[in-house]
Amino acid sequence: MTKEQMEQIVLANMQKIYLYCVRRLGNATDAEDVASDITVELLASYSRVRDESAVTGYVWAVADTLCRNYWRKAGKTATVEIPEDYTGMCQITPEEDYIRRQDISLLRRELALLSETYREVMVGHYIRGENCGAIAKRLGISETNVKQYLFEGRKKVKKGMDKQREYGVYSYAPEKFSFNFWGDNSSGYWELFERKLPGSIMLSVFDSPKTMEELSTDVGVAVPYLEEDVAKLEEFKLLIKKGGKYHCGLVIYDKTFTDGVRESARAAIKDNFGLIRDAVEKGKSLLPGTDYKCYLDDENTRGWFILMLLFWEAVQESEAKMKTHLTFPLLANGYKGYVMGLRGENQLAMNGIYGRYALQKGYLRALNYKDLTDKVMNPFERGARDVLLACEARLGESADFEALTEMLEKKLVHAEDGKVCPNFAEISDSGYEALTKKLAGEIDALAVLAAKVRDEAADTLERSVSKEYADAREIGGIVSMWSLLENVASAVLETGYLTKGSNEQNLTTFYFRTE
What we know:
- By secondary structure, this protein is of the alpha+beta class.
- Among the domains are: 81 residues, Arc Repressor Mutant, subunit A (Orthogonal Bundle); 197 residues, no CATH class; 46 residues, no CATH class.
- The chain has 19 helices and eleven strands.
- The strands form four sheets. The protein has a four-stranded mixed β-sheet. A three-stranded mixed β-sheet has the order 1-5-4.
- Strand 6 and strand 7 form a beta hairpin.
- Helix 1 packs across helix 3, helix 4 crosses helix 7 and helix 18 packs across helix 19.
- It is elongated and about 105 Å long.
- The chain starts with a helix and ends with a strand.
């Protein structure tokens, strides 16, 4: 809007502005002063009005603000608003109706930002019409406490209505939050983050500790709808209340950190590729002396089996060589482990790691590399266990026919002589142990390499977060372990030493017989 347009609007509304001030202030002299201030403010701020359809609301919002400021500075009490059903000689103008509706909206906003007890007392007294005794009985507190809540609640609401709320970025553009876990049992944790709001809460308090009111404003959700999620996060010690403010109870890392760790892991693998290739070749030469077997076996399949053996054992052994000690603290769900979060998008190189999935006569390990296959082996999926048990016992069918059909179509298993058989490598536990002993030197060398990468990641994460996160080093070491395992396949594929294999082969899943 131009200055000339605002001048025309002010001239056309000068008398209405003056009369409005008279009604609000009850004094002609004061009204003249404030009306003059309103005119000056409108002419000075014409450029703020971007949409001409909003100019009326802007004019009366300015008038309302300056009248409020006058009363606040003069130390006077506010005038009583005329109710809609008043039939006397005064009449509510459209401008006054706009202000009234705006006040109601602000009042609702401020009530929604109050914590539970304040909100219950204020709503009970002013909206439901309950007296202090009834409220005290309902809430189980004394009447004196009710009166104190009313007194302080009025101050909170008035202060909030007089200020411009600036909603945080999480209220309109929430970042992606991903929860992660490493430990004995994640029971209860994953369910907390099935919706976006808990993740936004964690990111908000990780940025800076906040009161419930500040958190509500930052995420753009009224306190009544926030309290349940906050209580659950507190129960799992992911939110910690100190001095009236909520603090983040877990380390949150971002894409910059994960990208750096991945690059470090890839560089370490490429720089030491000669060592890795020689170790794989040695392992392949030892396989004929074991009970290893695999459907559609070939030189490439054996190479992947040994490579996964070497790196899986190396990252486990690296923990003894790291200066970062993993303590696996006791968690709120009664198990030991680490909880952590990732902010922003994260392009994983794997569809999941299943390190030891127990069956009846052995266990399964699945390292689902996206670069090797899009057919993900997830033993926790519906019916998968029944099919895997059928494979283990070489049965003619599975208890879950639908799951069996799906896994046959995905070529995760196959039918042979009327029996369900696996499409992946198999070896006895004793055969695997014998292999690892013969490859002990190679595993130890790779463990030293892994320990260095993991310690560097631990140092980086520890430097990037507040000192209050005592387990930052340990989490850095865990994230870098995943990164090492994630980057093995892509880094080796780039060399051309090993290839993806045929569409029917499953190069990412391994079964170990214990009987």
